[in-house]
Amino acid sequence: MANTLLKTFSITTALSSAILLSAISSNAVAMSPFQASYQFAYNGKNLGTATRTLSKSGNNWTYVFAAKAAAIASATETSRFSFANGQIISNNFSRNSKILVHNDTMTINFNPSTKTINTKKKDQARSFAWKAGALDELNAELQVREDLKGSGLKSSYLIADAKGLDVRQFVKKGSESVKTAFGTYNTIKVVLSHDNSSKSSTFWLAPQLDYLPVKMSHDDGKASYNLTLTAYKN
Fold first, then answer.
1. Does the reported pTM lie above 0.85?
2. Partner of 180 for a Cys bridge, out of 41, 46, 153, 229, CB 3.0 to 4.6 A?
3. 66-75: buried (b, 16+ CB within 10 Å) or exposed (e) per residue?
4. What's the CATH code of the domain at 30?
């Protein structure tokens, strides 16, 4: 149970950062701070809550995703970056998760000056080549949002994990009405493509809330979980 929950929390935070904003807004607005709260459910049972918070100081931005399931598990991801000419410049990323007495950590440091990305997961350190546009699991969501407000969605995005840069792709699957504790919204449905056909990840984005994800779900064939919006402010 503990290992399954740990994996669930890791996937949840990772996927949260990859959510797409799937329509170009004709009235584009600048990226701005916000906070959103969610109900976290595992295999249909509500186990805890989650928040995502975007804040800034000058041109230093911080994006945080935090989730907690009662006294059993918790996870926090933090992305720090700057922003210029519609492009996010990644600085560093960290993830900390805990299941009962078991802890897991990961850090990613982006070094464009030396063209390297340095990572550390538990005690395993790695270094690999930096590439222009490299993002982390959280700020990728924000970059996609800005792209859609501008020239449009890219065909793929480079997202760093502990071992290297992954190419991520998403597919728009029409629209759908979603009821949440914070209200009912007409949403754009987006599906994350997986190499493993038994896995599915789906996101519902509300144009009314500047394409905020109001619902997310993941099913790996053995277990499922979802996040549903409960509060939002900007």
1. no
2. 229
3. bbbbeeebbb
4. 2.50.20
